[in-house]
Write a structure and sequence with these properties.
Blueprint: H1 12-19, E1 24-25, E2 27-33, E3 36-42, E4 46-49, E5 54-60, H2 66-71, E6 75-79, H3 85-90, E7 105-107, E8 113-115, E9 120-132, E10 135-147, E11 154-157, E12 160-163
Bound molecules: flavin mononucleotide (FMN).
């Protein structure tokens, strides 16, 4: 179906250029799809609700990973640490096995893949999905959460990965 854009909408190039000014944390959403680990890098992660604890991310309708993620009974949001930019790039690349070395990972008690070296894990059950524009909003109920050794976040800004520099 052809979607008619509202006449007032900005051009995609303007939209991209302006949104690049927005710095974002980086996560990798992982799951086990019939025993096969799947995952993709996302900057569209956000917390949604405290009670109940809900988080969200948006996935492109053209994602080849989404059908496997959607079929999984649970998923994990791996919040990346500042030394994980290569992992983030790998989980955004098509046509490769993202879970072979140098990716280091292990399974949790529920059989979900966890990426070693992440800053935190959010263990989620699927709560809702809503199609919006060319993306799908995925909402998860957080049923478990762990913070790990490295609190420093990986950020993405103007097409590059970087670190958070706090004011003195
Ligand atoms: C920094 C960065 C952030 C990204 N954020 C998202 C995102 O929020 N949602 C999304 O669907 N894809 C996002 N992508 C693209 C996916 O990681 C991946 O490239 C895309 O889903 C294609 O792989 P797939 O077919 O396995 O999904 C991002 C890529 C990068 C490098």
């Amino acid at each position: 179906m052809t979607e008619i854009l509202p006449r007032q909408a900005v051009a995609p190039s303007v939209f991209r250029r302006t949104l690049a000014r927005h710095a974002a944390g980086v996560v990798i959403v992982t799951a086990s799809s019939d025993g096969v680990p799947v995952g993709l890098t996302a900057t569209s992660f956000a917390s949604v609700s405290l009670e109940p604890p809900l988080v969200s991310f948006y996935v492109d309708r053209s994602s080849t990973t989404w059908p496997s993620l959607r079929g999984a009974g649970r998923f994990v949001v791996n919040i990346l640490a500042d030394d994980q930019s290569e992992t983030a790039a790998r989980f955004a690349r098509r046509g490769i096995d993202r879970f072979v070395p140098p990716t280091a990972w292990h399974l949790d008690a529920h059989g979900s893949p966890l990426l070693d070296g992440a800053s935190a894990y959010l263990h989620c059950l699927p709560h809702d999905t809503i199609g919006i524009g060319d993306h799908i909003l995925v909402v998860g109920l957080v049923v478990g959460a762990d913070t790990l050794r490295n609190p420093n976040p990986l950020l993405y800004h103007q097409g590059r990965f970087g670190r958070f520099q706090p004011h003195e």
